[in-house]
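Practice problem 4.
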């Protein structure tokens, strides 16, 4: 088995030092360099276009979660749950771009939809695999910030549950930052993740509800030109 990685796969992107860290603009306009880093870390193209940093309740969630992530010395697990189109993935891009600016975290930032994680890891099974199962798991245990989106899109087979719990427990042990995003109610989110993950999340972070404002898909805000 050859132990190499495919170059077109999202990779965790090393973080760098930014002297302007902490500034909170009213409009997020990524630089060309930031967009390239975010794209390479797996964030969706749609969400790395510039957006206004509002409305206030959405912005408040973005800033509060950002503060939890920045101030957590010992890692944190955070859940973001809410209806369709309320800007949860967009918020994750804000945290991802801010995390690229964290100091002294060379392990980087990675975004994945939960099902893509399972698909990628399953490719490590079988004779044509390009990496070992442990190497595949480490892709998700290593990044300083891991965003796992569309958390509800799982079969919840025993294998998926065990694998996901194992990844989250490694991340808890290594004091990493994990953001899990789902289109679920709080009760279903907790039930689907299971007691092991919820116990760790309760200790290190909290669940945020993204349900107090309208879907951006119903009333899209004008986007800014980034040319
Ligand atoms: N603050 C914002 N201002 C303007 N547009 C936004 C904002 N946040 C998100 N959008 C846009 O609204 C659309 C929906 O946002 P997004 O995909 O982040 O929602 P979501 O909560 O992740 O939805 P789902 O649960 O279906 O995944 C996207 O096109 C996104 O770029
Ligand atoms: Mg989304």
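Answer key:
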């Amino acid at each position: 088995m050859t132990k190499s990685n495919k170059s077109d796969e999202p990779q965790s992107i090393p973080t760098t030092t930014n002297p302007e860290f902490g500034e909170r603009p009213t409009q997020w306009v990524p630089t060309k360099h930031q967009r390239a880093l975010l794209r390479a870390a797996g964030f969706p193209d749609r969400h790395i276009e510039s957006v206004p940093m509002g409305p206030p309740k959405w912005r408040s969630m973005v800033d509060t979660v950002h503060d939890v992530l920045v101030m957590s010395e010992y890692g944190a697990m955070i859940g973001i749950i809410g209806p369709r189109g309320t800007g949860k993935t967009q918020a994750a891009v804000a945290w991802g771009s801010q995390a690229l600016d964290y100091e002294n975290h060379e392990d980087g930032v990675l975004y994945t939809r939960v099902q893509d994680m399972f698909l990628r890891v399953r490719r490590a099974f079988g004779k044509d695999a390009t990496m070992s199962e442990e190497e595949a798991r480490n892709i998700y245990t290593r990044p300083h910030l891991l965003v796992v989106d569309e958390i509800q899109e799982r079969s919840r087979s025993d294998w998926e549950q065990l694998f996901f719990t194992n990844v989250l427990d490694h991340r808890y042990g290594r004091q990493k930052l994990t953001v899990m995003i789902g289109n679920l109610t709080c009760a279903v989110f907790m039930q689907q993740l299971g007691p092991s993950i919820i116990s760790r999340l309760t200790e290190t972070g909290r669940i945020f509800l993204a349900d107090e404002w309208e879907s951006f898909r119903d009333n899209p805000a004008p986007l800014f030109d980034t040319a």
